[in-house]
Automatic annotation (TrEMBL):
Name by which UniProt lists this protein: DUF4386 domain-containing protein
Chain segments annotated as coiled-coil in the UniProt record: none
Organism per entry: Arthrobacter alpinus
Keyword Lyase: no
Residue ranges of the TM segments: 46-69, 76-96, 134-153, 162-183, 189-211
Keywords per UniProt: Membrane, Transmembrane, Transmembrane helix
The keyword Transmembrane helix belongs to this UniProt entry's keyword annotation: yes
Entry-linked InterPro entries: DUF4386 (IPR025495)
Domain of life: Bacteria
């Protein structure tokens, strides 16, 4: 079940962030962004649903991992849920600009009220806000990888190399964010490189859960990790 839920997170977020968002959002071009949303209304709505669903699935994954790891270190296991819950909450709130941009781009009454250029500018502003909200959520997405990686490394349930890679992914995500906010062009250039450890770690985690499964210690076996 953990593997299936984690796979759902990967597929749904990949669809929303990797397919829908790049197809409609043109940074700095209000008219093109509004036209793309209007021309791909169905896809844009599917992107909303995918984002909402993956946020719920992410929280369920965190809870499942917490139950798995709590015998190793309860406090660190709970940190997985806390960081995932904050990230999921931000992502859900971040969908409000998504819906507002859709309304503006597809309802002609807004173009009448604000004028075509004004309505398009508002659409771009909302999409810019959603992009910034996504980056804010990435802070806590990055942080949830740290306790997950630590517990994967120390528990004996996963390969130690996977735990190390998850922790590296945490730090690369966090290191990328100052560039994304302070120097957006540099942040955009770094994004493909930052995505490498995260993608490798999460694909490995999903495949391991689905194919190999975890070696859960017996109830009377104590893992030598301080609680």
């Amino acid at each position: 079940m953990r593997g299936v839920l984690y796979l759902a997170v990967a597929i749904l977020s990949g669809f929303a962030v990797g397919l829908v968002h790049p197809k409609v959002y043109v940074a700095g071009d209000a008219a093109a962004t509004a036209q793309n949303i209007a021309a791909n209304e169905g896809l844009f709505r599917l992107g909303f649903l995918a984002d909402l669903t993956q946020s719920a699935c992410m929280l369920l994954v965190a809870m499942a991992l917490c139950l798995l790891f709590q015998r190793v270190n309860k406090n660190v296991a709970r940190a997985i849920v806390i960081f995932a819950a904050v990230s999921a909450a931000i992502q859900c709130l971040n969908l409000a600009p998504h819906l507002a941009a859709l309304r503006l781009a597809t309802d002609s009454s807004y173009a009448t009220a604000f004028g075509p250029d004004g309505a398009n500018a508002l659409v771009l502003l909302l999409m810019d806000l959603q992009h910034s909200g996504f980056l804010i959520a990435q802070v806590f997405f990055g942080l949830w990888l740290l306790p997950m990686g630590y517990l994967a490394f120390t528990s004996g349930m996963f390969p130690k190399a996977l735990g190390v890679l998850l922790m590296i992914a945490c730090f690369t995500n966090l290191a990328h964010l100052p560039f994304a906010f302070l120097w957006p062009e540099v942040g955009t250039m770094l994004t493909p490189f930052v995505a490498i450890p995260t993608t490798l770690a999460e694909v490995w985690m999903v495949l391991y859960l689905l194919i190999r499964g975890v070696k859960v210690p017996k109830q009377n076996t104590q893992v030598s990790v301080p609680s």
